[in-house]
Design goal:
The complex is a heterodimer of chains A (246) and B (248). The longest helix of chain A has 23 residues. Chain A has five helices and twelve strands. Chain A has a single domain, classed as GHMP Kinase, N-terminal domain (Ribosomal Protein S5, domain 2). With 246 residues, chain A is an alpha+beta fold. With 248 residues, chain B is of the alpha+beta class. In chain B, α2 runs parallel beside α4. In chain B, the strands form three sheets. In chain B, strands 3-4-5-7-6 form a five-stranded mixed sheet. In chain B, strands 9-8-10-11 form a four-stranded antiparallel sheet. Chain B has one domain: Ribosomal Protein S5, domain 2. Chain B is built from four helices and eleven strands, in the order ββββββαβαββαββα. Helices cover 27% and strands 31% of the residues of chain B. The longest helix of chain B has 31 residues. Chain B is globular. Classes of the chains: A alpha+beta (246), B alpha+beta (248). Chains A and B meet through α2, β12 and α5 of A and α1, β10, β11 and α4 of B.
């Protein structure tokens, strides 16, 4: 692979800073309050949101709760196995959660119902085909699912299922951009083959104006490399945001 | 994070809640060889954090089929005790948070340990947080580096870690628990001592590009100070005679 990269091309013909084709389809699960299928190349992540009445956290009695979980479905990759979530599964859920939470795209303050009752927003990430970089596909689908989420009608402290009062309307559109280093080259949106040989992995979450999450995986990098990565993340992030708005 | 920011003033008259300047570290103390049974160990008190680290290995890999014929496996377990925070007794055992932290801490040391020297083995790094006060992951990296050195595990470089964040609208080195809980953002970093590589990078909250650039400079200066404390702890340990070891 290093030989091919030295010529400036990737196995699948992409430029180093080029994503695979990105698609997003909202409203794919009718039983959920919101949903979206995010596709980056062959990588497929379904995200669905559900809203329930839950008990608030003791230190935030008037604030709603957001919980992000992920499933690396065993059908999605020969490398995934059934069983409790492993560290990769926990990490992607926590990184996506960090990006959504930091971007403050959901106003949890408006989720208060009554004493000891707030709305709980569950964001479930279902990785359905892992052809590389499921993190970015998961954030893409999660933000799209929030855009698709309808607010349920609440009466006497109970949710009336199937009736809605409006949309959740996320105020920001957080997305993540993942890049890896192979040899001397930084590659955006790694394919599964590229991930197998990565030396350094880095995910950066952005909103229009801010960095809203960072997570280094394997490897190391310099300060300059991090700053360059942030510039790239803003550029590619805006491209993805345009797809989300489109 | 930011939603509760206005309720707690974090900067009063240019000073932080604990009286520090923006670039001051909290009191920091490292001791070496605190667990006699372990191959290497260290203890750190950093602000209100109390963290102990024990290293075992290189030793036989369990399960054996997981072993690599090319290098030692590095296994890391970060655990928070159920009595480590002011809040209620928490459930013991691994949590989603501790699983993630164990992973990112392992990924720091995979860059440093010369694992090719010990094929078919594993090196266990056990980190137990006894008392937590914000910045436990960076304190964990700092103490584990010293424990690995004490175990005689060959490493390419030393590593120090510190978090820089934004509290009360200003960038602040080494966030304490209150600043972490009520500040606007937090960026934990681990930096290798000689070649200044970033070995741990995480961030939450909101930061501009320029703020990130400033944070990287502040963290580098902070890590240099942390490194002095680590090096001093190791020197003291190896210079003192028998019977002068650390007492719990």
């Amino acid at each position: 692979m290093n030989g091919t990269l030295a010529k400036g091309v990737r196995f699948d013909g992409r430029r180093f800073d080029e994503y695979r084709p990105i698609e997003v389809q909202k409203g794919v699960i009718k039983t959920a309050e919101g949903s979206a299928m995010g596709k980056i190349g062959e990588t497929l992540v379904l995200v669905a949101t559900k809203i329930d009445i839950v008990k608030p956290f003791a230190d935030r009695p008037r604030e709603g709760v957001m919980v992000t979980n992920s499933e690396l479905l065993p059908l999605a990759s020969p490398g995934f196995e059934p069983g409790p979530p492993n560290e990769d599964s926990i990490e992607v859920a926590r990184v996506v959660d960090r990006a959504l939470r930091s971007a403050e795209c959901v106003d949890l303050g408006s989720f208060f119902v009554e004493e000891d009752k707030v709305l709980g927003l569950y964001v479930d990430l279902y990785v359905m085909n892992h052809a590389g970089n499921f993190t970015d596909a998961a954030t893409l689908a999660a933000t799209a699912a929030l855009m698709d989420t309808k607010m349920p009608k609440v009466e006497n402290g109970k949710i009336i299922r199937g009736e809605y009062t409006g949309m959740l309307n996320p105020t920001k559109l957080p997305v993540t951009t993942t890049m890896i280093k192979v040899g001397d080259n930084w590659l955006i949106d790694p394919s599964r083959d590229e991930e197998r040989v990565l030396e350094t992995a880095l995910t950066i979450g952005t909103t229009e104006e801010h960095v809203c999450a960072m997570q280094k995986g394997k490897g190391s990098l310099s300060k300059d490399e991090l700053m360059t990565a942030i510039d790239i993340a803003f550029k590619r992030g805006d491209d993805i945001r345009n797809i989300l708005k489109g | 994070m930011a939603s509760s920011e206005s309720k707690v003033p974090l900067i009063i008259d240019g000073r932080r809640t604990d009286g520090r300047d923006m670039e001051d570290l909290r009191a920091l103390r490292v001791e070496v060889g605190v667990i006699p049974e372990a191959d290497g160990s260290a203890y750190i008190e950093w602000g209100g954090n109390k963290i102990v680290c024990g290293v075992y290995g290189p030793r036989e890999c369990i399960p054996r089929h997981g072993a690599s014929p090319y290098h030692a496996l590095i296994k890391c377990r970060y655990m928070m005790s159920p009595f480590a925070s002011l809040e209620e007794h928490s459930r013991s055992g691994p949590s989603r948070r501790s699983t993630e932290l164990s992973k990112v801490i392992r990924e720091v040391f995979e860059n440093l340990i010369i694992a090719e020297k010990f094929p078919n083995t594993q090196i266990d790094v056990y980190i137990d947080v006894l008392q937590a006060d914000g910045g436990t992951r960076t304190a964990s990296v700092t103490v584990a580096a010293v424990a690995l050195a004490n175990a005689g595990i060959p490493m390419k470089d030393m590593v120090s870690a510190v978090a820089v964040g934004k509290a009360g609208g200003m960038l602040a080195l080494d966030l304490n628990k209150i600043e972490d809980n009520f500040g606007q953002s937090d960026m934990p970093l681990a930096i290798s001592h000689r070649d200044k590589r970033l070995l741990l990078v995480q961030m939450d909250g909101l930061l501009t590009r320029e703020e990130v650039a400033t944070i990287l400079e502040m963290a580098e200066r902070g890590c240099d100070k942390v490194h002095e404390v680590q090096a001093d702890a190791l020197k003291r340990f190896y210079q003192k005679g028998e019977g002068e070891t650390f007492k719990w």
